[in-house]
Amino acid sequence: MQSRKIIALWLALVLLTIFFQVILGGYVRLTQSGLSMYDWHVVHGVIPPLTEEAWQEAFENYKQTPEYIKINVGMSLHEYKLIYLREYNHRILGRLSGLIFVVPLFLFIFLRWLPWRENKILLAAGLLYAAQGLMGWYMVQSGLVDNPHVSPYRLAAHFWLALIIFIMIMWRMLSLQCGGGRITPALFKTSYGKNWLMFTALLIVQISWGAFMAGLKAGHVSNSWPLMFGYWIPPNMFSGFDGFWSHFVANSVTVHFIHRWLAFLVLAAAIALFRAMHRLSAPEIPIKRGTTVLLLLTATQLTLGILVILFDVQLSLALIHQGLGAWIFFMTIFLLHRMAATQVGAGHASPLELKEK
Predict the structure, then answer these.
(1) 351 vs 128, which has greater pLDDT?
(2) What's the pLDDT band for 283 if we cut at 50, 70, 90?
(3) Are the C-beta atoms of residues 336 and 278 closer than 8 Å to each other?
(4) How many Å apart are CA 327 and CA 38, to the nearest integer?
(5) How far, in Å, CA of 327 to CA of 197, rounded?
(6) pLDDT value of residue 3
(7) Does 197 lie in the same domain as 253?
(8) Do both 95 and 236 map to the same domain?
(9) Burial 259-290, CB ≥16 within 10 A → b, else e
(10) CA 20, CA 156: separation in Å to the nearest integer?
(11) Are residues 189 and 171 located together in one domain of the fold?
(12) Same domain, 44 and 110
């Protein structure tokens, strides 16, 4: 049907804008441009300063922020324009992505190409778009009070919201294009289902600690590998913070250490998933290829992580590392969808499960 092709192209375009938004967000963070826009206006905020007088007024307001006072004191107007426009482009792309998603969604529902009762996941994604915008401002606001750095917890929430929106839309697109997508408990009783759960759980933790790394700028803590400060286990991992558990999320040395070595557990889980799937006599080709690609991406990501450390968070390497981490998560959800699609219905064994037996 022509309508299915149009819907698929629309959803693919939305996914592309979200992915670019994630990459651009990483670029804004790595260039320390995220606190350049000290206010948030949904409507007239789409228009940047257009005259020298407007730019000068924006710059004078920025000079009152903690970031200028503690980090960028002495910055020129030209330098301010550069960081402002980076953050401005990030916000505009977010709004553009939301419009590209929401306007056609309601049009297709009105045309009955997408019956709303069958597309609640897309309606929920639309609500999360609004939540994402609010979370973005809530994150920025945390760096405009006293400390010129955003909260790593709010940054992690902002990042995860983007990933969740992406997978919700991707799941619906795969269901429209390939069919299936209904998950039953039987799926996770198989060896490959259990290994998928283990890999995904570790990956979620690893991505979360990667966001903490970004918020704390913990990537700059050590540029040596495999040792940190000449130690396998740094001596200052549990000092300087009140409360034992706070070290795991607030101590930049501890967060760096966890993210550095958890990567090897994620790789081991990827190998286990690969072996579990390839032990089947005749695994579904998309799933077999997917687990192979997932393993290769995970190994590449670990290597990139080491290079990011050695080159002290070099911009291009760090951006590729962030983008690849998101892509690995997307591939993980793709595998789940394809595994779910092999199930023939509730109360029945899936083709994969029968092959495993």
Answers:
(1) 128
(2) low
(3) no
(4) 31
(5) 17
(6) 83
(7) yes
(8) no
(9) bbebbeebbebbbbbbebbeebeebbebbbeb
(10) 17
(11) no
(12) yes
* 166 shares its domain with 198: no
Are 153 and 199 found together in one domain?
no
- Overall average pLDDT of the 323-344 stretch: 87
What is the domain count for the chain?
A: 2
Same domain, 35 and 115: yes
pLDDT digit string (tens) for 162-177?
Answer: 999 999 999 999 888 8
> What is the reported pTM?
0.89
Q: Does the pLDDT of residue 345 top 60, yes or no?
A: no
| Dist. CA 192–CA 278, nearest whole Å | 9
Q: What domain range is 153 assigned to?
A: 1-179
